[in-house]
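To whoever is on call:

I kicked off a structure prediction for a single chain this morning and the downstream step that reads the tokens threw a length-mismatch warning. I double-checked the sequence; it's 110 residues and nothing unusual in it as far as I can see. Pasting both halves so you can look.
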Amino acid sequence: RSIFSSYTENSVTFNGIEYFKSISIDRDEKVSDWNIENGILLKDFENLQLIDNEIVILGTGFKGNHSNDNLIINSISENTNCEIMDSLSAIRTFNILKTENRIVSIFLKI
């Protein structure tokens, strides 16, 4: 079972690998870079191909300062099935859901 084992404000460790950039992890535990140089974009979430009972988590960052992203985060919340929370809560939620053998994907802003 793959979980986050540690985190700082600048990195996360998933499956023993430390990541210093924002990442996404799909339901099959494939890790990808998540390019958010231009901020969090609705297009990243509009075409998600979800399977039954899949949970998608959006971690908005560790510092709690995502004021530039607030409008798009509100739009994502209204137009998708994403659970939106700060990145620390997102990591904890992801780990809990994984231990329950739930189907979960995550977009994590670092």
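Update from on-call: the warning came from a stale cache, not from the record. Cleared it. Sanity check on the structure: The chain has three helices and eight strands.
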